[in-house]
Amino acid sequence: MNKSTPITNGSCIDAPILKERGQREVFCGLTGIIWLHRKMQDAFFLVVGSRTCAHLLQSAAGVMIFAEPRFGTAILEEKDLAGLADAHDELDREVERLLARRPDIKQLFLVGSCPSEVIKIDLSRAAERLTQLHAPHVRVLNYSGSGIETTFTQGEDACLEAMVPVLPETDAANLVLVGALPDVLEDQALGLLRDMGIEGISVLPAGRADAMPAIGKNTKFALLQPFLGETAAALTRRGASHIPAPFPFGEEGTTLWLRTIADNFGVDAETFDRVTAAPRARARKAIAAQAAELNGKSIFFFPDSQLELPLARFLTRECGMTAIEVGAPYIHKGVVGPDMELLQTGTVSEGQDVDKQLERCRAARPDLTVCGLGLANPLEAEGLSTKWAIELVFTPVHFYEQAGDLAGLFSRPIRRKDKLELAKS
Q1: Consecutive sets of 10 residues in the chain, 425 residues long: mean pLDDT of each?
Q2: For residue 375, which of 297, 300, 322, 302 has the smallest C-alpha distance?
Q3: What total number of domains does the chain contain?
Q4: What CATH number is attached to the domain comprising 132?
Q5: Full residue range of the structural domain in which residue 291 is found
Q6: Is there a domain that residue 3 lies in?
């Protein structure tokens, strides 16, 4: 099957999903370390992998070689891969050296990679053993960042999921915002919710180990990112309740996200309007300044970051664009369902067969194509304007004050192409 299924009822929530399984173009989950290590100030991410893993992280982070980042790679040598050395003994030795050098570390994550999974290193057992050795000063956890079966944003999901079982218990009613955001965005969300009178708010992950949220049967949580399905499931198993809502991209998405939380905590309409009126007006004005160049334009999403469905909702409803196809690596309706209920698009696809999707993209000739780095330059050479999907993860785009910047990320490639065509003429 390689044909689009038109959607005519104004929502894609119940429309057929084109499911594809073939060659994919994605980064691996190790990439998530780049934003996670900046967020958790007393954590360290130790990748058990190859020199290729080390080069990926160094390049993606842009860290100079003499800097002291909060991540590193325990490089698997030929003797490890051949089984000539005990990988667990060597890992214990490297962790001992690391903690002696960096006494500020309170959380240590052992991150699996393609090589460590291929040779079946049991990092879960290693994490338990190392926690016993170094507790209570350091807690050691593990998760997989391997790209064999995952896309790059799932690295954060796996990391936060690993943290959930060790979060403290509470019987108090509280709200947990789930997802790693830059401090400026986190402060905006916390400020708006606290101005509404909501108390007992915390964030996962917190900046430090001693500030991690407590979880219990009276905990409610709201996701900040649409790629945290496994973390949401883990929190639900701990007894917490999910507050499903459209994601806070743009004025509409932010308002619906905030309103859903406010309704769950009994905030009255007058208080909600008082707190949100001014930033909503600023967001609408900022979006309008960019939407003039997006209105009436078409967009095509290749599956990459799992942000695709919420972003398509924002672009179609607030910027006047037409979504030809919205592809996502995985579609979890319990997470992105509220966005899908608001989204009308030509095709929703899950997974990827890159050759077939390229055929559909070339046939459609969209005004803008959102895709990974590996596809962007070839498509640009064919005359298609592109936007790097990874930029949407690394750039602050949530909530009211960033709504105009979010729209600008999509209007700039179109503006650039218009100027180039004008110069040629």
Answers
A1: 40 86 78 90 91 80 64 75 65 91 94 83 91 92 84 92 96 97 95 97 95 97 97 98 98 98 97 97 96 95 94 97 94 95 91 92 96 90 91 93 96 82 66
A2: 302
A3: 3
A4: 3.40.50.1980
A5: 17-21+281-424
A6: no
